[in-house]
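seq/struct pair 1
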Amino acid sequence: MKKYISKPKQMMSRSFLLILAFFTLNLSAQTITDEQKNELLPKVKLLLKDYERYSQFSADGVSLNVEYKKQFVALFELTLKYGVFNDISPSKKGIFPTAEKYLNFVETNYKQGLDVTIDIDNIKIVDVVFLGDSYSISVLVHKKAIGIFNDQGIIRFDDDLYFLFVSGVDEKGKPSSFRISGILTKEKYAQVNAKQKGIILGLGVNANYSKTKINSSTVSSSDLWKPSAGRAFSPGLDIVVMLNKRIGIGTGLRLSSYNSSFNIRNYNQTSDRMVTDIDGDKYNPVLQIPSLSQQSFVKSIDIPLILKFVAGKGKAKYYFDIGLIGSIISKSYFTLSGSSVKAGYYETLNVTLSDIPEYGFGSYSYNKEKKYVFLKKQATSLSGYTSIGILYQLSSNLLFKLGAGLSYGFTDLNVDSDNADNFINITSSSLNEKTSLRSAGIELGVFYLIPFKR
């Protein structure tokens, strides 16, 4: 058992250390001081006031102004990597690659210009990156715009946008010469932010509702017992680090439950299995079982180590997970329901003893209230795990997960094969070779995404 479990534990420990190192380095890189914000705010506000004025394209509300058009274009970088969101089309979709294209759309469709308002007093600087010879600044801005589209109807816009700015550096190393490098929606900014920063931390809660199976090799090779899968609900916490938009690693903590029922009917014979009584003598159980159900339960604390893959575009994406789950068994027991008559045949004495309660011989009825020892000791388990499903973007930082997962136990749980109360033991001719955990079901969860810089 140890050689199977120790290595995954070492891998998990190393992964936690790597994740911690990533977080420590990236948090220090992302820090924006109040002093930096105070220095930037006046200059950002000044540029936004110019944008508010010149993005109306008209000084009188009657016709377009040539100087306003010229000054509007001058506010932008010549090359816009992420473009300008089309907030003035009826569909509110699309991106203009340049400021000139935005201007051309206005010239074609808004002959009287626009009425634009920027909530300058409540702008929020969300990110500042120093690139050595320039600054990259992201600002959350609320914009309102209204205009008459092709003399046919009024088009309105009223929402938050992310304005991206770049600036040079003056002789004192302070930002100067601000230009707009892009205007994005919240959803698009989240995508751009992920691409730029590379690493995203996801913190989530999840729940699995699964059919579970405590798989016994003894039952699988026997015609006496009829197994039935159980059902269980398992809550958990997830930690995911996406190294890029396609690949990530995950771990976390889950409280898992497994249960299975094993049923036997019309059993009336002497078992080949040798059992030791309280005096140390060997006997063969002589059993009459009209109907009996034995239900086994295992509860565990799971620590997964998962490789994650994501594909697709837009708000809905597909995911595929594969990896290992290390489980610490926290509780295990079985219950009985039904009835039996039990005696013992002592071959060395050639005698059958019955109706001796201290030896466990007699007639018994069971009602599931008593819990019996299932495993010899609190064991550990290693399982393989895979899942597939859909990730849906609820907002720029919030994802919903829905999929299906499958786990398959590799290691033996070390069932107490000497327990005479375990009817699977005493009706079998040989020792149980392996008992493992399996599950299959649906999983759902919610993730909150936190971007980090490299």
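seq/struct pair 2
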Amino acid sequence: MKATITNQQRIYIIENTPRGEEVNLNT
């Protein structure tokens, strides 16, 4: 089951990720 991530959610995740940390988005 793949979770559906909208652009808004993706931006929110990126905006709330500390600098230097890699964001793993499995889409």
